[in-house]
Amino acid sequence: AGGNGSGNRLDQLCGPHYVFVDRDHSVFVSDYGNHRVMKWTHGAKKGIVVAGGKGAGNSLTQLSSPQGVLVDQLGTVYVADGGNDRIMRWPNGATQGSVIVG
Predict the structure, then answer these.
(1) How far apart, in Å, do the first and last CA atoms of the chain sit?
(2) Of 45, 46, 50, residue with least CA distance to 30
(3) Computed from CA positions of residues 16, 67, 89, 34, in that sequence, does the dihedral angle turn out positive or negative?
(4) What is the domain count for the chain?
(5) Is residue 7 part of a domain?
(6) What is the pLDDT of residue 7?
(7) Which range marks the domain in which residue 38 is found?
(8) If both were cysteines, with which of 17, 52, 59, 90 could 77 make a disulfide (CB 3.0 to 4.6 Å apart)?
(9) pTM here?
(10) Contacts of 79 (CB under 8 A, 6+ apart)
C-alpha cells in the first residue's frame, strides 16, 4: 500500500496511522493526513477510498485525522475519527457513514 511518496493519489498515503488486514488479505489503512480510510485488495497497485476522502470535516461524508480502523466480516468499516472525537461506521459500499459513539 502506498510506496509512491506522500500524497493524495490512490497509490499514495499521507501519514498512515493504523492498519487492518481482513481474511481476504485486503489491507485497510487509516490515512491520517488525507482524512480517509483506504483499502488495497491483495496485489492491487492502487487503493480505493472506503471512508472519508472528502477533505477534513465533520459531515457524515468526512473524517478528520482518522486513527484506529477495524473491518467486520460484512465489510463494514469502523474508524476512530480522532479530529471529531467520534467513532464512525461505514457499511460496505456506502458513500457516507454514521456516528455510533460520540
Answers:
(1) 30
(2) 50
(3) negative
(4) 1
(5) no
(6) 84
(7) 16-101
(8) 90
(9) 0.93
(10) 30, 37, 51, 52, 63, 66, 67, 68, 69, 70, 87, 88, 90, 97
